């Protein structure tokens, strides 16, 4: 299949070190890597169009084109860059380094980098505080100070207590690529669980700290996925979910024993397409297992009374093709579900009585606005509603009587609600386009809402406008879109527009703070967020209208957003850029292959692009319930029709594209971006004014945890590319 790929590599002296998505500690201080004469020339050409930019010699590098052909359901499928799937082969590594030199040879010469570094630094080198979790009046949270590169784990004794540092990850790596994440705490607050993450990997090494002594216990856990962590009542054992080569498993760890001796208690027979998450409630009494067929499939719920004389897993939900989100309060199991309620309802099950579906009662019935989620808080239910893609928090008693709502500042997003049935403390984050993440505390007893943390970000919300507009998609469906811009901006047909969206996995795209959007608006642009089908903005029906064989609806909704912006004289195709990540990266791939003349520039981050092979790698099996699989003859037909990698046509003029990925992505295989980059560079009829570029980092990935310097440089690279392509002055 592959012998010795021949790769034409640019002169190694052009970029002596491997930067991938950046040597992040070397934040750009202007133009580097070019001769002094060229630098002086570029300084006088700030407003020059993209056509004036020259590509370095040997850019892009020529990649070996193989003759690999698969036959799927009688159809011949060419895969000329299959060899790039081998991430650590010498040929792939050589090609990555050549791409890196090419990309930075272009981006480093762009004249906007210094200005963007300054603007983004002011917005991003600020205090960043996570939502606390409360255990026995101890509040655990993550915080990064303005002068720190990474978030530290803190603890306070009481809401007003003095912060104490529990874990500082900065000494763990010289380049600050190792980070920590808060995973939970025991019910009495004595033990805190945290993970140590390398780069942007999903896998972490689990640690357990004795908070009283500030020392980690001598428990040696493997680096792996951890889903749900819960102590037994005596804290001598720990339940957790993880993944194996065969599929998901729930394990039990006896404290003081090696993790290699951990006992499997559930999961045998479940394949890689399943997810299983354990939850422990009521101080170790109840063990709940949530089984999901992938990220978008049906659920099963099992419950076990660990204090019973003969504990036994009891199926509560089994054989129902629907989604369930569970939580236990006392002897009552509450579940949000779309079963017989596409906009979701919350049902209650008496675990001390009959548990058959016929005996369930509606605690919070379905209504006109979809339920996005719920939490147990102070003996009540705190329900998160979505109202035209913006959040509302309402409170219900256990019988379903509405007691009121927690007031929010306006159109925005609620993240990370942390609360417990036996505590009146509710913590959550609220943010909007021009409102950075603000941490709130709500007392369920006194009904007092107070601000716990508000970062000092130099943004005045009064200077910006957030509008919600509605447009019609190809099939007539009404779709909403948020517009964010500086006050006084008037449509003239030439506004630089940055359009984004997601459209998948029942995930709602709501107004949230983005330094990227602030900088875009500050420089005279308009930022647009489309709420396409496939998301959860309008319940499960909206989600299903954009999944499996309906995926094309998502793409059509996105094109409808672009069309609305053009028809209403905000912009034109030469001023229209688009950006998306993960499933949104798939959206970018579809947009640039299906409607290449509608957009000038595309930023495609950590994307899925080869939809005929995605299910073979990393998290792919979990997403078959959302996308389908080429192994199924019927699903193969629609996947082939839109899969970006199989729909690149030689000789076509495509938009300029910046692909972003890296070795640290252990969720969406980086091979998608590698293969698509090579194919587009070979087949597109683009000139140097619309290059196909790849930013590839060996550590960063899907799960964040990057030092703030890396985050800033990534945004500098993205925005300098877009400013160049869209002629932002």
The total domain count is: 4
What would you call the structural class?
alpha+beta
As a percent range, the share of strand residues is: 25-35%
Give the N-to-C terminal Cα separation.
48 Å
CATH superfamily heading of the largest domain:
Alpha/Beta hydrolase fold, catalytic domain
What radius of gyration results from the CA coordinates? 26 Å
Mean pLDDT, as a whole number? 91
CATH third-level topology of the largest domain: Rossmann fold
What overall geometry do the principal axes of the alpha carbons give? globular
Q: Number of helix segments? A: 11
Q: Could you give a quick summary of the protein structure above?
A:
The chain is of the alpha+beta class. α3 crosses α11.
What's the structural blueprint in terms of helices and strands?
Elements: H1 36-43, E1 69-72, E2 75-78, H2 90-107, H3 113-124, E3 128-129, E4 133-135, E5 138-144, E6 152-157, E7 164-167, E8 178-185, E9 191-198, E10 204-210, E11 215-216, E12 223-224, E13 227-231, E14 237-243, E15 248-254, E16 263-266, E17 275-281, E18 286-292, E19 299-305, E20 314-317, E21 324-329, E22 332-337, E23 345-350, E24 361-364, E25 371-377, E26 380-386, E27 391-396, E28 402-406, E29 413-418, E30 425-432, E31 435-443, E32 449-453, E33 464-472, E34 478-486, E35 497-500, H4 515-522, E36 526-530, H5 540-544, H6 551-567, E37 576-581, H7 583-594, E38 601-605, H8 624-627, H9 633-642, E39 656-662, H10 671-683, E40 692-697, H11 708-726
Parallel strand pairs: 35-36, 35-37, 37-38, 38-39, 39-40
Antiparallel strand pairs: 1-2, 3-5, 4-5, 5-6, 6-7, 8-9, 9-10, 10-11, 10-12, 13-14, 14-15, 15-16, 17-18, 18-19, 19-20, 21-22, 22-23, 23-24, 25-26, 26-27, 27-28, 29-30, 30-31, 31-32, 33-34, 34-36
Helix pairs in contact: 3-11
């Amino acid at each position: 299949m592959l012998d010795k790929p021949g790769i034409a590599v640019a002169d190694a002296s052009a970029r002596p070190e491997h930067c991938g998505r950046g040597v992040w500690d070397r934040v750009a201080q202007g133009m580097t890597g070019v001769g002094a004469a060229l630098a002086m020339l570029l300084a006088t050409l700030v407003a020059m169009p993209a056509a004036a930019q020259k590509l370095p010699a040997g850019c892009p590098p020529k990649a070996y084109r193989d003759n690999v052909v698969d036959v799927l359901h009688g159809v011949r499928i060419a895969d000329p860059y299959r060899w790039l799937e081998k991430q650590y082969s010498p040929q792939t590594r050589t090609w990555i380094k050549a791409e890196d030199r090419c990309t930075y040879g272009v981006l480093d010469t762009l004249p906007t980098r210094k200005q963007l570094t300054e603007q983004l630094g002011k917005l991003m080198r600020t205090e960043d505080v996570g939502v606390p979790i409360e255990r026995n009046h101890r509040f655990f949270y993550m915080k990064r100070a303005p002068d720190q590169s990474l978030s530290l784990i803190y603890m306070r004794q009481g809401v007003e207590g003095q912060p104490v540092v529990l874990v500082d990850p900065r000494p763990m790596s010289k380049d600050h690529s190792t980070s920590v994440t808060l995973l939970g705490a025991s019910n009495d607050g004595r033990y805190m669980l945290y993970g140590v993450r390398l780069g942007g990997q999903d896998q972490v090494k689990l640690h357990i700290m004795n908070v009283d002594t500030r020392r980690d216990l001598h428990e040696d856990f493997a680096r792996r996925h951890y889903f749900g962590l819960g102590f037994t009542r005596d804290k001598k054992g720990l339940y957790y979910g993880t993944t194996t080569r065969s599929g998901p498993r729930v394990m039990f760890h006896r404290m003081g024993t090696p993790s290699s001796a951990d006992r499997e208690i559930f999961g045998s027979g479940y394949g890689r397409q399943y997810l299983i998450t354990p939850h422990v409630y009521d101080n170790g009494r109840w063990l709940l297992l949530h089984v999901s067929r992938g990220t978008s499939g049906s659920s099963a719920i099992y419950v076990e009374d660990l204090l019973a004389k003969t504990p036994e897993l009891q199926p509560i939900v089994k054989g129902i093709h629907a989604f369930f989100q569970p939580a236990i309060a006392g002897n009552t199991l509450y579940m949000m579900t779309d079963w017989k309620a596409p906009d979701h309802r919350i049902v209650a099950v008496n675990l001390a009585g009959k548990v058959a579906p016929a005996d369930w009662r509606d605690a919070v019935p379905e209504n006109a606005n979809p339920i996005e989620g719920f939490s147990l808080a102070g003996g009540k239910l705190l329900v998160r509603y979505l109202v035209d893609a913006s959040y509302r928090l309402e409170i219900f008693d256990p019988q379903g009587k509405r007691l009121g709502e927690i007031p929010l500042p306006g159109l925005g997003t609620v993240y990370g609600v942390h609360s417990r049935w036996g505590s009146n403390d509710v913590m959550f984050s609220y943010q909007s386009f021009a409102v950075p993440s603000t941490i709130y505390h709500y007392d369920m007893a006194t009904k007092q809402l107070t601000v716990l943390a508000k970062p000092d970000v130099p943004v005045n919300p009064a200077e910006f406008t957030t509008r919600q507009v509605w447009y019609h998609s190809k099939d007539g469906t009404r779709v909403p879109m948020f517009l964010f811009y500086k006050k006084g901006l008037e449509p003239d047909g030439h506004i630089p527009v940055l359009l984004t969206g997601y459209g998948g996995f029942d995930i709602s795209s709501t107004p949230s703070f983005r330094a990227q959007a602030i900088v875009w608006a500050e420089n005279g642009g308009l930022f647009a967020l489309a709420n396409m089908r496939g998301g959860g903005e309008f319940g499960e029906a909206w989600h299903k209208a954009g999944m499996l064989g309906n995926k094309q609806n998502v793409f059509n909704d996105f094109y409808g957003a672009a069309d609305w912006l053009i028809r209403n004289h905000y912009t034109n195709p030469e001023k229209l850029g688009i950006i998306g990540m993960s499933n949104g990266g798939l959206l970018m791939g579809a947009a640039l292959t299906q409607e290449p003349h509608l957009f000038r520039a595309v930023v495609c981050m950590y994307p899925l692009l080869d939809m005929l092979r995605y299910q073979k790698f990393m998290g792919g099996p979990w997403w078959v319930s959302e996308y389908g699989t080429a192994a199924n003859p019927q699903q193969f037909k629609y996947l082939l029709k839109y899969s970006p990698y199989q729909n690149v046509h030689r000789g076509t003029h495509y938009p300029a594209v910046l692909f972003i990925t890296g070795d640290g992505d252990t969720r969406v295989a980086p091979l998608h971006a590698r293969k698509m980059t090579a194919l587009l560079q070979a087949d597109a009829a683009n000139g140097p004014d619309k290059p196909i570029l790849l930013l590839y980092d060996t550590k960063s990935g899907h799960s964040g945890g990057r030092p703030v310097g890396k985050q800033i440089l990534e945004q500098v690279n993205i925005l300098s590319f877009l400013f160049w392509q869209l002629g932002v002055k």
